[in-house]
Design a protein that fits this description.
167 residues, elongated, single chain, mainly alpha
Protein backbone atom coordinates (compact mmCIF):
# COMPACT_ATOMS: atom_id res chain seq x y z
CA UNK A 1 0.00 0.00 0.00
CA UNK A 2 1.32 3.43 -0.88
CA UNK A 3 2.58 5.68 1.88
CA UNK A 4 -0.16 8.27 1.28
CA UNK A 5 -2.68 5.58 2.24
CA UNK A 6 -1.07 4.95 5.62
CA UNK A 7 -4.19 6.21 7.39
CA UNK A 8 -6.26 3.60 5.55
CA UNK A 9 -3.88 0.85 6.63
CA UNK A 10 -4.28 2.02 10.22
CA UNK A 11 -8.08 1.85 9.92
CA UNK A 12 -7.87 -1.68 8.52
CA UNK A 13 -5.58 -2.78 11.35
CA UNK A 14 -7.87 -1.16 13.93
CA UNK A 15 -10.87 -2.92 12.39
CA UNK A 16 -9.15 -6.32 12.45
CA UNK A 17 -8.24 -5.81 16.10
CA UNK A 18 -11.78 -4.73 17.01
CA UNK A 19 -13.95 -7.04 19.08
CA UNK A 20 -15.97 -7.90 15.97
CA UNK A 21 -12.87 -8.77 13.94
CA UNK A 22 -11.47 -10.86 16.78
CA UNK A 23 -14.78 -12.63 17.37
CA UNK A 24 -15.20 -13.58 13.73
CA UNK A 25 -11.67 -14.97 13.57
CA UNK A 26 -11.70 -16.81 16.89
CA UNK A 27 -15.26 -18.06 17.42
CA UNK A 28 -15.69 -21.61 16.17
CA UNK A 29 -17.72 -21.84 12.99
CA UNK A 30 -18.65 -18.14 12.99
CA UNK A 31 -16.66 -17.30 9.85
CA UNK A 32 -18.08 -20.14 7.72
CA UNK A 33 -21.60 -19.44 8.99
CA UNK A 34 -21.28 -15.75 8.08
CA UNK A 35 -19.73 -16.65 4.74
CA UNK A 36 -22.62 -19.02 3.99
CA UNK A 37 -25.17 -16.35 4.90
CA UNK A 38 -23.26 -13.88 2.72
CA UNK A 39 -23.47 -16.24 -0.25
CA UNK A 40 -27.19 -16.83 0.37
CA UNK A 41 -27.73 -13.06 0.51
CA UNK A 42 -25.86 -12.62 -2.76
CA UNK A 43 -27.91 -15.41 -4.37
CA UNK A 44 -31.16 -13.80 -3.25
CA UNK A 45 -30.02 -10.34 -4.37
CA UNK A 46 -28.56 -11.27 -7.72
CA UNK A 47 -31.07 -14.01 -8.54
CA UNK A 48 -34.09 -11.77 -8.08
CA UNK A 49 -32.38 -8.73 -9.64
CA UNK A 50 -31.36 -10.67 -12.75
CA UNK A 51 -34.85 -12.20 -13.02
CA UNK A 52 -36.26 -8.66 -12.99
CA UNK A 53 -33.61 -7.56 -15.50
CA UNK A 54 -34.64 -10.41 -17.80
CA UNK A 55 -38.26 -9.26 -17.62
CA UNK A 56 -37.11 -5.75 -18.55
CA UNK A 57 -35.27 -7.27 -21.50
CA UNK A 58 -38.54 -8.76 -22.72
CA UNK A 59 -38.57 -12.28 -21.34
CA UNK A 60 -42.11 -13.05 -20.23
CA UNK A 61 -43.54 -9.77 -21.49
CA UNK A 62 -46.69 -11.55 -22.66
CA UNK A 63 -47.05 -13.43 -19.38
CA UNK A 64 -46.72 -10.89 -16.58
CA UNK A 65 -46.36 -7.10 -16.26
CA UNK A 66 -43.17 -5.38 -15.17
CA UNK A 67 -45.00 -4.06 -12.10
CA UNK A 68 -45.86 -7.62 -11.04
CA UNK A 69 -42.23 -8.67 -11.45
CA UNK A 70 -41.17 -5.60 -9.44
CA UNK A 71 -43.70 -6.28 -6.68
CA UNK A 72 -42.46 -9.83 -6.11
CA UNK A 73 -38.79 -9.72 -7.07
CA UNK A 74 -37.48 -6.37 -5.85
CA UNK A 75 -38.36 -6.91 -2.15
CA UNK A 76 -36.38 -10.18 -2.35
CA UNK A 77 -33.41 -8.33 -3.81
CA UNK A 78 -33.63 -5.78 -0.97
CA UNK A 79 -33.55 -8.57 1.62
CA UNK A 80 -30.65 -10.22 -0.20
CA UNK A 81 -28.74 -6.94 -0.37
CA UNK A 82 -29.25 -6.34 3.36
CA UNK A 83 -28.06 -9.83 4.29
CA UNK A 84 -25.06 -9.61 1.93
CA UNK A 85 -24.10 -6.11 3.08
CA UNK A 86 -24.31 -6.84 6.81
CA UNK A 87 -22.49 -10.17 6.61
CA UNK A 88 -19.96 -8.69 4.18
CA UNK A 89 -19.08 -5.88 6.58
CA UNK A 90 -18.70 -8.30 9.48
CA UNK A 91 -16.56 -10.66 7.38
CA UNK A 92 -14.46 -7.70 6.26
CA UNK A 93 -13.66 -6.89 9.88
CA UNK A 94 -12.03 -10.30 10.29
CA UNK A 95 -9.42 -9.67 7.57
CA UNK A 96 -9.70 -5.98 6.77
CA UNK A 97 -6.05 -5.41 5.94
CA UNK A 98 -5.72 -8.31 3.50
CA UNK A 99 -9.05 -7.64 1.83
CA UNK A 100 -8.74 -3.86 1.97
CA UNK A 101 -5.45 -3.77 0.07
CA UNK A 102 -6.57 -6.33 -2.51
CA UNK A 103 -6.68 -5.04 -6.08
CA UNK A 104 -10.19 -6.47 -6.32
CA UNK A 105 -11.59 -4.39 -3.42
CA UNK A 106 -11.97 -1.08 -5.31
CA UNK A 107 -13.53 -2.97 -8.21
CA UNK A 108 -16.10 -4.64 -5.96
CA UNK A 109 -17.00 -1.41 -4.18
CA UNK A 110 -17.00 0.56 -7.42
CA UNK A 111 -19.32 -1.90 -9.11
CA UNK A 112 -21.67 -1.88 -6.10
CA UNK A 113 -21.72 1.92 -6.35
CA UNK A 114 -22.47 1.77 -10.10
CA UNK A 115 -25.27 -0.75 -9.45
CA UNK A 116 -26.74 1.58 -6.82
CA UNK A 117 -26.62 4.60 -9.15
CA UNK A 118 -28.19 2.51 -11.90
CA UNK A 119 -31.03 1.50 -9.56
CA UNK A 120 -31.64 5.11 -8.52
CA UNK A 121 -31.60 6.39 -12.12
CA UNK A 122 -33.96 3.60 -13.22
CA UNK A 123 -36.51 4.10 -10.43
CA UNK A 124 -36.45 7.90 -10.54
CA UNK A 125 -36.42 7.93 -14.33
CA UNK A 126 -37.94 5.53 -16.82
CA UNK A 127 -39.74 3.39 -14.22
CA UNK A 128 -41.99 6.37 -13.41
CA UNK A 129 -43.61 5.82 -16.80
CA UNK A 130 -44.04 2.07 -16.34
CA UNK A 131 -47.82 2.33 -16.75
CA UNK A 132 -47.22 3.16 -20.43
CA UNK A 133 -45.08 0.08 -21.12
CA UNK A 134 -45.92 -2.34 -18.31
CA UNK A 135 -47.42 -5.25 -20.23
CA UNK A 136 -47.09 -6.72 -23.74
CA UNK A 137 -45.28 -3.70 -25.15
CA UNK A 138 -41.66 -3.06 -25.99
CA UNK A 139 -39.69 -2.02 -22.92
CA UNK A 140 -38.07 1.40 -23.45
CA UNK A 141 -34.40 1.44 -24.41
CA UNK A 142 -33.47 3.20 -21.14
CA UNK A 143 -35.10 0.40 -19.10
CA UNK A 144 -33.38 -2.28 -21.18
CA UNK A 145 -30.06 -0.48 -20.79
CA UNK A 146 -30.61 -0.32 -17.00
CA UNK A 147 -31.27 -4.09 -17.03
CA UNK A 148 -28.05 -4.79 -18.93
CA UNK A 149 -26.04 -2.53 -16.61
CA UNK A 150 -27.63 -4.21 -13.58
CA UNK A 151 -26.89 -7.75 -14.73
CA UNK A 152 -23.32 -6.88 -15.71
CA UNK A 153 -22.50 -4.93 -12.54
CA UNK A 154 -23.87 -7.59 -10.18
CA UNK A 155 -21.98 -10.25 -12.12
CA UNK A 156 -18.85 -8.11 -11.78
CA UNK A 157 -19.45 -7.72 -8.04
CA UNK A 158 -19.54 -11.50 -7.67
CA UNK A 159 -16.35 -11.94 -9.70
CA UNK A 160 -14.53 -9.18 -7.81
CA UNK A 161 -15.73 -10.67 -4.52
CA UNK A 162 -14.27 -14.05 -5.41
CA UNK A 163 -11.02 -12.40 -6.50
CA UNK A 164 -10.67 -10.82 -3.04
CA UNK A 165 -9.40 -14.17 -1.80
CA UNK A 166 -6.74 -14.43 -4.50
CA UNK A 167 -5.36 -11.01 -5.54
Amino acid sequence: MQENNHWLTEIFIWLERSSIGEAVRTTSYLYPILESLHILGIALLVGSAVAFDLRLLGIGKHVFPVTTAARYLLPLSHIGFTVAAVTGMVLFAASALTVGISVAAPWKLGLIFIAGVNIAVFHHGVYRTVDNWDFQTQTPVRARLAAIISALTWTGVIIAGRLLAYV
